[in-house]
User: What shape does this take?
Amino acid sequence: MLTLCNLLCGAGATVSALIWGDLKTAFILVIASAVFDFFDGFSARLLNQYSAIGVQLDSLADMVSFGLAPAAVMMTLFAETGSWCEWQEWMVKVGYFVPLVMTAFSALRLAKFNIDDSQHSEFEGLPTPANALFCMSLGMLAEAGLITMPREAIVILSVVMALLLICPVRMFSLKFEGFGWGANKLRYIFLLVAVAIVAVDYRYAVTAIMALYVVVSTVRHLFGGNKNVQ
Assistant: This one.
């Protein structure tokens, strides 16, 4: 039921973006999806209730909530914004559908995750919820007039985020291994910085925190190798 609630919220976010053009509601619904996504796994571990259908259903729900919904938001932004230079009609049509590359690569990302036993304490590639939260937050900020994104930026960003989903960069997980400092140092520091970002300006917090997550993970991967999170 928790996983299905995740799916329903993701479907609602997609409709909210594409049909109603309401990006704030879409953002709130994906936040709800992320909460349900956390608690379905938490409940399964707490009750020791694991099943093959649960694994498959979780990925199907994530595909909608964290694969299709963010693409819908970027498509809506593309349709509603201007551009730096003049676009031909065929270019506009092609550009409108470019964000769907994120949906396709999210499916590939989720399929790889399901058969990769090495992604427990860290991930390979950007997790789909992180990508979704980043894109949804951009939509909310743009709708509120806090940022301006031309069509060129939306197309480029959509491709970059899609590639991050399937890149070989090892990105740390926020799943704590107990509460000790040694095994969770990076997690504790990241959470403290995240709290500070929220305190400075909560409006840009989600966007900034997700961007920071990508930067920290990439730097750690490039200069720290593929060691476990310390």
